[in-house]
């Protein structure tokens, strides 16, 4: 039996200047309302040196994911 699941994906990139520091990825299941967020740090030195800014950008990404989750859950 085939089962399918609709999902929304969101990707983001954290930059310091022109340098890529981290890649963010989220998948939100439309049917279940569940989600998964992952981060991959590409440049550990810039991440460590700019931790406050990087975390601020990651928080903004999480806020966007939560908005999609809220919209998805309100439809169920």
Explain what this protein looks like in three dimensions.
The protein is an alpha+beta fold and 76 residues long. It has one domain. The protein is 39% helix and 37% strand. The protein is built from 2 helices and 3 strands. It has helices at residues 44-49, 51-74, and strands at residues 7-16, 19-29, 35-41. A 3-stranded antiparallel beta sheet has the order 1-2-3. A hairpin with a 5-residue loop joins β2 and β3 (35-41). The longest helix has 24 residues, at 51-74. The radius of gyration is 15 Å and the shape is elongated. The chain starts with 6 loop residues before the first strand and ends with a helix. 13% of the residues are buried. The model has no long low-confidence stretch (mean pLDDT 92).
Strand order of the largest sheet: 1-2-3
Which bin fits the share of residues in helices?
Answer: 25-40%
Largest sheet: 3 strands, antiparallel
- The sequence of SSEs as H and E is EEEHH
